[in-house]
Amino acid sequence: MATENQTSAEYIQHHLQNLTFGQLPEGFERVDHHGKVVETLTDSAWTIAHNAAEAKAMGFWAFHLDTLGWSIFLGVIFLYLFRKAAIYATSGVPGALQNFVELMVEFVDTNVKDTFHGRNALIAPLALTIFVWVFLMNLMDLVPVDWLPLIATNIGIPYMKVVPTTDPNATIAMALAVFGLIIYYSIKVKGVGGFVSELTLHPFNHWSLIPFNFLLEFVGLLAKPVSLALRLFGNLYAGELIFILIALIPVWWAQWFLSVPWAIFHILIIVLQAFIFMMLTIVYLSMAHEDH
Amino acid sequence: MNLNATLIGQSLAFAIFVIFCMKYVWPPVMQALKQRQKKIADGLEAADRAKRDLELAQDKAGKQLREAKQQAADIIEQANKRSSQIIEEAKEQAKTEGERIKVAAQAEIEQEVNRAREALRAQVATLAIAGAEKILGVAVDEKAQSKLVDQLAAEL
């Protein structure tokens, strides 16, 4: 909902801006929303960015407090619930929580066993963590877009982007972790020589075609984390943007006719994206374990 | 959408979550699942075994019942046979006894007849002599005529 002193563009920008904490350089001129210079920094200072320009000026060493906060909060909820179920896990008649946790664990375990045929104690818990965590982060998308940012604004927090998976930092971080595991297991299972030969001697096993092979395989290898990260980010970012655009429609009853159907449809997307991220991770790691 | 150090923070958080999940969540849940699976499998197996045992017991009971029936039938048959045998024997015995009694009676009768005949014969001789005496009007010397009288008596 765009208020009187906020244009639609400002509203969208506000909703798409993370709460950034970082260091502003010396001599940086802080401005208010009318563009008037409020203060000029005499020293570099660690602070929260009050607009997109400030966030940009902070460079690489800045943190999105909302992304980190929400994702860690959701991760802790996930682990708290699952740990609680794990502690009280009994082989007898399970309670409701244990039932739910077992359902998730068995679902993930079945998928892992169907796809991954080696023995690796990491893959299944990794898949479970990815699935539940990504799902919970995606789930934040179903919280009406204005609630949490409005509360935050009223208690003095300038920005609040509540869906961590609409921040590429979150999705790329996970994709990079998976990429690291792909490299690690490729080298561990096949050896450095095996990994290098996989990159250079496929699909054409001839010395003269090594550069061509390498180009193909290297792009293929890099495409894995990139596609993982961007697929999740793109889907959720687009979904969030549509919620924001619907919220901008001035007719009040449009919320029900547009927001509700989109939210219902979005339930499918958030589960599906979490599932796809998990499945692709299993598949990529399974490929890393297989010798050609 | 700036790429910044959030990336590192998120990676760290992710790694910690995965390690926590791997160490403290996954193993106990999996263990509980496996234990329950084993329990259920054991229960099913026990049920199967009980069913088999029951079938076996029923078979055994049926067999014993059939055997008992067979035995009873055998005993009855034997008894029947024995009883008819006893009757036959009794009949046989009665017959021989009757025969024996009859033979004895006949022998006695014959003996009686013979005795009567002898007596008669003796008397006939006396009677004949007496008759002859009457007829002849003399005493017949019994000793002298005894040959004749004996002959007469023997012809009777």
TrEMBL record, chain A:
Subcellular location: Cell membrane; Membrane
Protein name from the UniProt record: ATP synthase subunit a
Stated role: Key component of the proton channel; it plays a direct role in the translocation of protons across the membrane.
Native source species: Zooshikella harenae
Coiled-coil regions listed: none
Higher taxonomy: Bacteria, Pseudomonadati, Pseudomonadota, Gammaproteobacteria, Oceanospirillales
Membrane topology designation: Multi-pass membrane protein
Entry keyword Ion transport: yes
Family: Belongs to the ATPase A chain family.
Keywords: ATP synthesis, Cell membrane, CF(0), Hydrogen ion transport, Ion transport, Membrane, Transmembrane, Transmembrane helix, Transport
Pfam families: ATP-synt_A (PF00119)
PROSITE patterns (alphabetical): ATPASE_A
InterPro entries: ATP_syn_F0_a_bact/chloroplast, ATP_synth_F0_asu, ATP_synth_F0_asu_AS, F0_ATP_A_sf
Membrane-spanning segments: 61-82, 121-140, 170-187, 235-254, 260-285
Automatic annotation (TrEMBL), chain B:
Compartment(s) where it occurs, according to its Swiss-Prot or TrEMBL record: Cell membrane; Endomembrane system
Keyword Isomerase annotated: no
Transmembrane segments: 6-26
Record keywords, A-Z: ATP synthesis, Cell membrane, CF(0), Coiled coil, Hydrogen ion transport, Ion transport, Membrane, Transmembrane, Transmembrane helix, Transport
Organism domain of life: Bacteria
Principal location: membrane
Membrane topology: Single-pass membrane protein
Coiled coil: 40-122
Oligomeric form and interacting partners: F-type ATPases have 2 components, F(1) - the catalytic core - and F(0) - the membrane proton channel. F(1) has five subunits: alpha(3), beta(3), gamma(1), delta(1), epsilon(1). F(0) has four main subunits: a(1), b(2) and c(10-14). The alpha and beta chains form an alternating ring which encloses part of the gamma chain. F(1) is attached to F(0) by a central stalk formed by the gamma and epsilon chains, while a peripheral stalk is formed by the delta and b chains.
PANTHER family attached to this UniProt entry: ATP SYNTHASE SUBUNIT B, ATP SYNTHASE SUBUNIT B', CHLOROPLASTIC
Annotated function: F(1)F(0) ATP synthase produces ATP from ADP in the presence of a proton or sodium gradient. F-type ATPases consist of two structural domains, F(1) containing the extramembraneous catalytic core and F(0) containing the membrane proton channel, linked together by a central stalk and a peripheral stalk. During catalysis, ATP synthesis in the catalytic domain of F(1) is coupled via a rotary mechanism of the central stalk subunits to proton translocation. Component of the F(0) channel, it forms part of the peripheral stalk, linking F(1) to F(0). The b'-subunit is a diverged and duplicated form of b found in plants and photosynthetic bacteria.
Protein family according to the UniProt entry: Belongs to the ATPase B chain family.
Official protein name in the record: ATP synthase subunit b
Organism in which the protein naturally occurs: Zooshikella harenae
Gene name in the database record: atpF
